[in-house]
Input
Amino acid sequence: MAKVYATGKRKTAVAKVWLESGNGELTVNGKSLDEWLGGHETYKMRVRLPLEATKQLEAVNIVATTLGGGISAQADALKHGITKALVAYEPSFRAILKPMGLLTRDARVVERKKYGKKKARRSPQFSKR
Output
């Protein structure tokens, strides 16, 4: 089957994902998943979740590029991108991934700072005297 492209997002992180049938190689920013995430086992599990749910861990090759945000947001963006790519690759996977909540884009982003405030909601310290 041909290459499938999908974009995953989380906070300010964006992951561009290319998926094709293969032998289970996962390359992120030119590195393997273990090399890219180092010892962060929970992040690795999060990224592999859609592949394990659809039993495609050894059946597809993934090449991804991530940018923006931190390592956690990038891992979640990658998970979202892989999920969207899997659904485009095989529409029947939607029935497995949708109930798990993997197709939903986590819309929580940092609230903007307001004038007269120290942060988004934190007011300056009040002094009575």
User: Anything to note?
Assistant: Residues 15 and 78 are 5 Å apart (CA to CA). The beta strands are 4-10, 13-21, 26-28, 31-32, 60-67.
